[in-house]
Structure of Beta strand repeat-containing protein:
Amino acid sequence: MKKFIFTCLLLGFIHLGYSQGTYYWVGGATGTSSFSFASNWNTALDGSGTQRVTANNADVLIFDGTNIGGSTPTAGTVTPIGIATHTISQLILQNGANVVIQRGTSSGTGTITITGDGGPSDDLQIDATSSLKITSIAAAYNEYIKLSKTQQATGTIYGTVTITDAGLGAAKLIDSSAVGSLVFAAGSKCFINNTTTAGYPFGNSATTVSTSSYLASGILFKAGSTLFYNGGFSPFTQTTTTAPAMTFEAGSNFVINAPLGTYTNIFNKHYFSNVAIASGITANADAAWYNVDTLTVNTGTTFNLSATGGYPISGNIVNNGTIGCASNYKSAQFVMISNTVPQSVGGTGTFNGMSGFSVGTDANVTLNADLKIGSDTIIYPTSYISGKLNLQGKTLNSTGLLSAGNIAVKAAATVTTSGTLSGNVVTLDVTKYSKTVNTANVALGSLVTGTNILPNTYIISLLSDSSFITLSKLPSGACTSFTISNGTAVITTSNTNGIDGSFATSGTKSFDAGVNYVFNAATTSPFAASNNNALGNVTFNAAITTNKSQNIGGILTLVNGNLTINNTDTLRLLSTASISGASQSQYIVTKVSGATVGTLQTDGFSASKIFPVGSPNNYLPVTITPSATDTFNVSVFEGLTSNGLPNGIALNASQKASAIDAVWVINPKTNIGQTAAINLSWTNALTGSRFFTFTNAQIGVGRNDGTNWLSNIAATANNIQRNVTASYTAYGSFGIGEANNLLPVQLISFTATAINSGAKLSWSAANEIAIANYVVEKSVNGTSFETIGSVNALNNASTTMQYSFFDDKYAAATSYYRLKIVSANGSISYSNTIILKSTIDIKLAAYPNPFVNALTVTGLKGGETIDVYDNAGKLILTKVVALSVNAASINTASLNSGFYTVKIVNQNMMTTALQVFKNK
C-alpha cells in the first residue's frame, strides 16, 4: 500500500540511473552466505535464471519459502549474514519464508535500506505465512533494516517480525518515512526485546514523523495486529514526547510479556488500543498514558499504577490478577472515557489500593468487581463520576490504605474559561480553577471542547495547585478558550444497602443536584445519608423502602415492585418532577407505624395530578384538581378509625359494612381554604358488605375533623369502577361511605347488666349525625334476633351521647343483645353482640367504664372466676376471687383500646357477662 507517490518526473530520474531486476534467494538456509553474494540471488525461483551479478539499488529481492535452494529445492529458515551497507528497491517475504537477518562478519552497523520503486505496491512486504527476524550475534554488531524517507518507501507486514539484540549489538527496523508508511496489518505480530544501550527497535526520537495529530507516526498497527514486548528497552522513542513513535488503531494489541526495565518509557504519554499484561509477572506503569482501550491483567500478575495522575481507559478493564498503586503514589487512578461503547471493569482478580476511580462525561461503565480505592499517603484523592456507572452489587470501597478517597458524583454543567495551551497541558485561569476555587467545572473525565480541540477530548489529569489540566488528545493547533462539560451521572445499583453500600467511604461523598439513580435490588436504605440535594430521574426496578425524606426533581419511574415511603419520611416531588409506570401492581405505599404514616408530596401544580398511593395490599390512588396552584401532601392507610388517624379507635365490622375500610389524608401546603376536587379510588377487598349494594347516588365522601367524622357529602361516584369525586375547601382525613350520612356512628361502649328481674342495656355513641334511632334486638340462641324496643338518636356530633334501655323480660337464661343503628335515610348498621347470663348475681358491675389501667368488679360473693375476653372472643386476662370477697380489681394497663367482655362465673357455674371499653 503506497502512502505517497512521487511525481512521474522524479520517478523518471530514479529509473534513468538504475535498471530494476527481480531476484529470488537461492542461497539455501546457510548462516555463512552473505545477503549481498550475487550467487545467492537469481531471476528464477528454481535457480535457472540469471544471477544477480552486481548489487543494484533498484532491485527487488524476494525470499520465497517454497524454495530457498534454487536448483536444489529446499525449505527452512534463511539466515544470511548482513553487510555494512546495502540498498534495494523492495524486499519481499512470501509463501512461508522465514528469514533471520544478522550482522556476522565484523563489528559495526549493517543497514539494508529500502528505497521503494515509486509504484503503488509496498516496498517491504511480509505475507501472513512468513516471518522476519532482525538480530545481533555479537557486541557492537548492529543490524538495521530501514525504509527510506527520501524516496518515501512503504511497507506492510501480514506475518511476523521479531526484533531482538540478544543483549549484544543493536537490531532495528527503522521507519523514517511518512505517516503510516510501515503498516502492521490484521493478524500480524511483532516481537520486541532489545536490551543494549539505546536499543530501541524502531529507532530513536528522530524516527518521529509528525506532531500535528495524536495519531501521527510512521508505524501503524492496524486492528488485529499485535506488538509483543518481551523485555528490554521501550519499543517507542528514547525520549519522552507527546508525539508517538507508532500508532495503535482501535482493535490492535500491545502485550507485555516481561517485567518492565529501568528505562522503558513504555506508557508515558502514549496512545494504545488493547494492552495485556502476561501471566506471572509484576509490572509498573512507569507513567500515565494518554489512552488505553481495553486493559487485561492476566492470572498471577501484579500491575501497579506508579505515577500520579489519571490513566484513561476507553474500553474495558479485565483483571484476573492484582491491580493497585505502587507505594507512595497518592493520586493515580483509572479514568473511564468513551462516548461510543459501553465499558466494564471486572475479572477474577482484585483491585487493591488505587487512589480513585473516575467515570467521564460520556462513559457508560458497568462494575463487575469490588474496587478498593484510597491512598497510602495523607492525601484525599477524589473519584469523579459524571457518566453512567452501574455498580450492580459491587462496591467502590474507599477503605483506603492510609487515607480514604473522596467521591464526587456530578450533574450536567458547562463552563467556558480561558487558558494557556502547551502541548496537551492547559493552564487555566487561576480565578476559576485553583486549590480553593473550581468554578471552571474541572473534574477527571470532563469533556473539553474549543478551537483546534479534537472531538472526544477529556481531562485525564489535573493539578489544582498549579491550575493545570491534561487533555487526552493533542490539540491540532492553538487554543485559548476551553469549554469544560460534565454529563449528568447515572448511578445504577443492585446493592441491598443502596447508594451508601455502593460507595463505601469514610471520606467525603458529594452528590450534585439532578443526579439520576436506578435501583435494581430490594433495599430499605436506597438513598445516600449525606445527600441533601434533589435527585434527578429515579427508576425503581425492585421493592424499595425509603430510609430518609428525599426530594426528586426528575421522573420517578416504577418498573417492578412497590416503592414504600417509611412512616417517618416524606417523598417530595418538585414541580419539575413526574411519576411514570404506576399501576395496580406497582405503586407508592405510604407506610403506617403507630400514629405516623409516610407522605407523598407533590409541589406546585394546578392541573389534575394523580398520587399513585396505596397500602401494602391495595392500590388506593388519589387525583387532586386544585383551583389554584399549590403543593399537596397525601397519605393513605387501611382501617377506618373514629378520628381518622392511624392509631385511632378502630370501627367494628358492622360499622364498616357501609363504608370503604381506608382513610386518605390530604392537605394543601399554602392555600388552605381553596377548593379542590378530590378523586378517590378503592378495591373490592376494602369494600363493606352493604356498600356493594349502593347505587352511585348513594356514595359520598366524608371528612374527619380530627375527632369526629362529619356527614358524607354527595359525590360523583362509580361503584363499578370503584372511584368517587367530591370537592372540598377543608382538608384532613377523608373516607368513603353513604351519601348524606356519617361514616357509621362510633359506639364507644355497649353493656348489659342484670338488675333484679330484668336487664339494663347501656351504650354510648360518638359522631352522631343523621341517625334515626337505635333498635334493640334480642336473641336466645345468638342467631335469630327479635326487636324488643328502640331509642331515638339525639344526633349531637359534638359530644359523646349516653343511652340505655331496660329489658323487663330478662329471665334466668342466656340472652344475646345487639343494636340496629338506623340512619335517617334508612340505611342500617349493627353493633357487636353482647351476652348476658346470670340468675343470682344480678348486682354485679364493672367500673369505671370506660376504664384505663384497672377494672374493678363489684357485687361479688367470693369464689368467682373473672375472665376478660377481647372483641374477637379471645381470653385475655383471668382472676380467681378469694372467698368472702365482695370486690376485685384487675390490672388492665397492658390492654389496647377497644371493647372487652367481662364474664363472672360463680361457684354454681352461672355466668354474668358485662361489656366494657378501654379508652386509652
Notes: DSSP finds three helices and 85 strands in the chain. The longest strand covers residues 413-422. The helical segments are 8-17, 498-502, 653-656.
